[in-house]
């Protein structure tokens, strides 16, 4: 019929073929942008730079992981009320009775955990920058071995970002999590550790071979004018179309290392007493808290936890629970034999300080309650109305240590309300949250769970 068009079958076949070809090319080459090798143009990326940053992180993260596991052990999660991660199961296989000696152990390990983590942030960011093309490589996997490697890489990167981000937010007291920090950080640590071990097992031989063949000094001596891309590598880190260098590799390492030194300098003071405490600008508890004997870090304020002067005044009583149950006023406690020790107090947030505490030995209070020294631990309960750690349990050995006190004074003066007046627990080498403030009850009927 005139005026009507007849479909051209060959043209339809050509259109289908073109679409099929474009799809095949897309599947082969990947989406545009970061999935294409030519997108990444820095001449600095390559196996050598990644290997150097990786070795630094290997040493640093190992320290952070070990001290983090020690921190969990220090919380004595096998005791009643102490476990923030009750579903840990086999992940608690390594737990041991946390010692009271040396008294500075938790101060050092937790300080190294937090300050070490903060110090590693610039190195971690530099390492992520150096391997970011790997996260976008196409196709996602060419073999089972590569699929395992990429899965471990994604878990490693995701785990590192999660652990560092949540840890830093917690240290800075930004409790913005839609979940409980403690179990999330604990389980996240084990996921990250598993990916970290797999990644190290796969990459360490290649790192050693790269540094052995390329050396260390040559790259560190290379100026900006002489900076060239590394030889092509099978991992796709070296740019296929490199741009001119705007920084040498030694300059990049100096930039990342300088950032780490700044992070260290702005946080290390939180573990030091004296004028250097004022340098801890990254620590919310690192600076001045007024004048006098009570001028040291306050983790939880009385007002913030519902502890009022009315509840800590003349009507306050300490209840001892054991075979004998009795109540003691602050005057009763002051009339007992008092002992004075210089002991550090250290928090999970990384800060620590050593102060001189005066009070009644926990062992003496246990005997008043009818408990034989060293036969049982204690659960200390606080006047606080809300928040975490309203109670904490201590082992029998911690109670028996003669330096373990129900402190009434610090540095020769009465405790301030924010520091736990009228009485607080001080135990050598225990996490700060186990040194319960505003104690209202000492229960010596504690049993190991």
Automatic annotation (TrEMBL):
Keyword Membrane on entry: yes
GO MF annotation, one: oxidoreductase activity
Domain Oxidoreductase molybdopterin-binding, first and last residues per copy: 308-448
Ranges annotated as biased composition (Basic and acidic residues): 1-16
Keyword check for Transmembrane helix: yes
Keywords: Membrane, Transmembrane, Transmembrane helix
Span list, region Disordered: 1-20
Top-level taxon: Bacteria
Residue spans crossing the bilayer: 48-75, 112-132, 153-178, 184-202, 252-269
Matches recorded under InterPro entries: Mopterin_OxRdtase_euk (IPR008335), OxRdtase_Mopterin-bd_dom (IPR000572), OxRdtase_Mopterin-bd_sf (IPR036374)
PANTHER family: BLL0505 PROTEIN, PROTEIN-METHIONINE-SULFOXIDE REDUCTASE
Annotated protein name in UniProt: Molybdopterin-dependent oxidoreductase
